[in-house]
């Protein structure tokens, strides 16, 4: 039977963005984002310096109706024009996940539509496919507030984790170091702005795992060293220098570990097209993107990063993951659970439980 056009309402509520989007996917794989609405709760969490789960869940409940209605109006298709609903079912802050998932189930039930209960990480993994043709398989660096992983992505549901962080996620390191520099939440973008006027060579910082075998990451040593240096800073200009040094160190480690993974991946995929994709909030960082692009070029990999709006949390990526699943005939029952923890590659997580993805939740 020929594949049908999918027109999917996507819902994302796993952290501090309430998001809804309508995405159309054509049988050959062409993707059109018909609408994408994101309501950030940054203002509500900023006084606390991080995401407060109870505040997040309440804010999702209060805004999900209006955000979904706006996504539907912007898309101009009407509920009769939908072929399915996709909602993030985890991992993340479970109070928030439940809001979007329950809303998705209600739409599916009321309209007789199939439901896709989507893993948030699979959404990020496919986000580059929203705006560019990126055929499977590809090597993915997923870098967000809660995750830092290298994954071989062979298709929907087909992920093999090659490496992960042994302590903090890269976004978490950005956020915590930014906090010690007195920057507002979320720290990543603020630190990037401050780093622009800095000299990255003033402060030497530890380079964890440099040259070490494997594809894991570690940022806790850098975090501690940067916090100590931040405490001792007396001149304003030196704050920018430290921000620049931190950004260079994080981007450097991401590129070095990814480079090692690319070398191994290239050996396994000899004679095939080699592709590197970066996704997740930290992929919005220009220094990170530039270093990865350089490394990819040297290794003969093509390089794709999603447009900035699809790097951080959004519902278009959830709708696309749902569309790809529903196109394969995979739908989920209306009692699909909300899951605070849900590793993409269950086999790798079982083999190495201390490295379980999502252990600390989204944007830990
Ligand atoms: O993907 P995301 O929106 O949420 C999670 O699933 O975690 O990622 C958010 C993370 C935060 O830690 C934020 O500080 C970081 O991405 N981030 C950045 C930048 N923009 C967002 N980090 C560095 N530079 C940026 N420009
Ligand atoms: Zn995310």
Account of the 3D structure:
The chain has helices at residues 42-45, 53-75, 94-111, 120-126, 170-180, 187-195, 220-232, 236-268, 286-299, 308-311, 316-327, 346-351; strands at residues 6-12, 17-25, 31-40, 84-90, 115-119, 138-143, 148-155, 158-164, 275-279, 302-304. It is α/β, with parallel strands linked by helices and 364 residues long. It has two domains: 6-131 and 310-342, Nucleotidyltransferase, domain 5; 138-305, ATPase, nucleotide binding domain (Nucleotidyltransferase, domain 5), CATH 3.30.420. The strands form two sheets. Strands 3-2-1-4-5 form a five-stranded mixed beta sheet, sandwiched between helices. Strands 8-7-6-9-10 form a five-stranded mixed beta sheet, with helices on both faces. A hairpin with a 5-residue loop joins strand 2 (17-25) and strand 3. The protein is globular and about 60 Å long. It starts with 5 loop residues before the first strand and ends in a 13-residue tail after the last helix. 55% of the residues are buried. Residues 355-364 have low confidence and may be disordered. Bound molecules: 5'-O-[(R)-(carboxyoxy)(hydroxy)phosphoryl]adenosine and zinc ion (ZN). Residues 15, 144-146, 171, 174-175, 186-189, 192, 280-282, 284-285, 312-313, 362-363 line the site of 5'-O-[(R)-(carboxyoxy)(hydroxy)phosphoryl]adenosine (KG4).
